[in-house]
Amino acid sequence: MRHLRLVPDNTKIPFMRMRRWTFPIAAFLSIMSVVLFFTVGPNYGIDFLGGTVIEIQTKDPKPDLGKLRGSLNGLGIGDVQVQTIGEDNSILIRVGQQPGGESAQQDAIGKVRTLIGDSAEFRRIEIVGPRVSGELAFNGGLAMLVTFAAIAIYVWFRFEWQFAVGSIISAANVVVMTFGFYVVTQHEFNLTSLAAILTTVGYSLNDTVVVYDRIRETLRKYKKISLGDLIDRAINDMLGRTVITTMTTLIALFSLYIFGGEVIRAFTLAMIFGVIAAIFSSICVAAPVLIYFGLRSDAMNDKKKDEGAAPQKA
Amino acid sequence: MLHFTRWKMIGILAIVLVGILAAVPNLFSKETVDSWPSWVPKRQMVLGLDLQGGAYLLYEVDKQDYVQRRLRTLVGEIRKAMLQEPRIGYSGLGVQGQGVQLRVRDVSQLDLVRTRLEPLRNPLGNSLLGGTAINEFDLTVGSDGLVQMTYSEAGLTQRIRQIVDQSIEVIARRIDQLGTVEPSIQRQGTDRILVEAPGLGDPERLKSLVGQTAQLTFHLVDSSYQTGQTEPQRKPGTIVLPGQDNPNVNYVLEETPLITGEDLTDAQATFDQRSNEPVVSFRLTTGGAQTFGDVTQKNVNRAFAIVLDDKVISAPVIREPILGGSGQISGSFSIQSANDLAILLRAGSLPAKLTIVEERNVGPGLGADSIRAGKIAAIIGTAAVCAFMIATYGVLGWIANIAVIVNVVMIFGIVTLLGATLSLPGIAGVIITVGTAVDSNVLIYERIREEYRSGRSAIASIDAGFHRALGTILDANVTTLIAAVVLFYLGSGPIRGFAVTHAIGVATTMFTAFTFTRLLVAMWVRWRRPTKISL
Questions:
Q1: Between A202, A247, A253, which is nearest B484 by CB?
Q2: What total of structural domains would you count in chain A?
Q3: Most CB atoms closer than 10 Å: which of A170, B146, B283, B314?
Q4: What digits encode the pLDDT tens for the residues B9-68?
Q5: Which of B108, B72, B77, B106 is nearest to B90 (CA)?
Q6: Residues 173..232 of B with a Cβ closer than 8 Å to A: which?
Q7: Hey, what domains does chain B have and what are their CATH numbers?
Q8: Phi, psi angle pair for B214, to nearest 5°
């Protein structure tokens, strides 16, 4: 029986020669993401801004959005955004942070509730007060930094410091680009988005370590080839695996995107982007970083004694 | 790599079986599972509020409000202490920032002041720091006669902690009386309380029960002023409070309450015998009944006000002394509001005001939609991935699929066993695990393929393939596990929900890759004795 092979054997793609193009592209995309982040900025949701989101399903299958918007904006609770999500009668109402502390938020919701009354089912109400929103942003950022530090220490311990630097740069690149994705698409950025970014960080680290592991092994096997050729060889040897794994992950994510419902659509889209960014980053950022930081010159000379370090027993 | 002792084999299969069995109850409805005999595992997964609907309410102790109230009482206590014989003359007693200050006229009495005020510093038990009691207030007595009692940082923190503990008890008692919902009530940090009520559609009633301070006091109405005056001139020792039904009506009351909610032993919602309106009847403690009897005896034909959370519910006139220690509160109640007030009075008042700082409610409809959509997506996704794996690897693809499916079932089994909560981000964690679990199989198979192409025999290739790939899988997964564990400890809400399933998933992935997949392949090798590998 013949099996499906997406990648021919013995590919010899000169990835490291391509780094003259791919590395600057990655750097450019990252820098652009940072610039966009500080100029345009993401479309922050209430988790980070504070405020209220109400999701209702009206009994009327075709409600008059304009009229609803008009009467909500007449309540004197600031600018109220109204939009449909999915069905015509699924409506998302956003109310900004109310001045006057925590109880002012509750009062604003009371007004909306009274206005809508029995004409719709309240499917979701989320209120985030001014104090909590700041903490949520801080904790999310802190969690990410500590994760990076812990991973760097582990990779340093198991590999060489260049690998630790590379895996962090690569993961940071994925994070920054996914942020950029949120800025460009203007999808709402909330705690769930943060979870999406963290997922792609996990995926990116996993993939980078797999590639690094192979590079390390190839390094031990061929002592005379140049580092660039050696990394090319390692990546090409793994190309079949990389493509198959990416395919299966993307199949799973796309089915979630198409059939998974409205609530997680933006979430899965960000993950799809993140997975692609992660694969790109492992090959085009993590690998060249080893060359830029001069892995072989100072590391491989005293490497022989370390030969037995890989886990031999399972 | 392909040899397993009998015991090892049994051990691996037993673990897999336990994982699967733990997940089984989730396939059935709660009623079905309840009817099973007692020796069957029955535990079901706890679904997050985003999946099953419910209310998430984060309350915070209103520190500012508490401090102001506490300092006002402290002023009263200090005044009383100074009036004891021999009297101490002072001036300028009042609240100043986070404390109370006064100036003693006669500097020679400062030692006496110190002994009088020392007991008011209110030592707070602190079991955490091993017995060294923290005082609520710091006392400074200046040689010029300036005396200050201020909150110490540690004292305030400790006091807030106690308030949170007391509040949790009170909230639990109140909710208990509702009977219908089973929310969890937890402390969060030093000054917050998280109330989660899964499955609760409309949280308004819960909010009104949890958030209300319910401080009940009875005060004599100062009859020298007409009720209804908007800005009455009043004498010291009186307060002005608005009416509950009509906030424009103000009442002038004596500040010291006759009795408080703590003097109540029982409260019940009933109907007034004459008007047939819902009222709340109460019974007083012996001490409370005594005081109330005395006061009503002395003040016949005067009005007293029933005050709940600084609002006057009603102000009836005392027709005759109330000596029996029981009475009723009327004040345009509905049946439900009378019932709720009775619950609040029975459960006791909150020691401080609580404000909602974060609230999330998901209706049951939305959660059900998410689950349905998630299931469809999971089935289609799994089927597509399986088909792809079989097309790529044939028989070994089947083995990989079995391993991945067992892996996912085990994740759900462990989540069930641990009693962890499955939320929408948690499902994302499972999906990304499917990605890495498939990856571990792909790594193994691609490795086998390489070894085979480099000229080894079929069985030697399989052996070497596992051997080589497992090192990679270990490093890759430990790295991810570190990330997941850090996120679990530092993250909150959705991040934590994601980290739980992701961490469990990484663990099960390593387990299946190192044991179960290897076992399946070994069994296949023993059965078919392959001499060629078609990958």
A1: A202
A2: 2
A3: A170
A4: 899 999 999 999 989 888 888 788 888 887 777 888 888 887 888 888 899 998 888 898
A5: B106
A6: 202
A7: 6-51+364-528 (1.20.1640.10), 63-159 (3.30.1360), 212-359 (3.30.1360.200)
A8: 60, 45
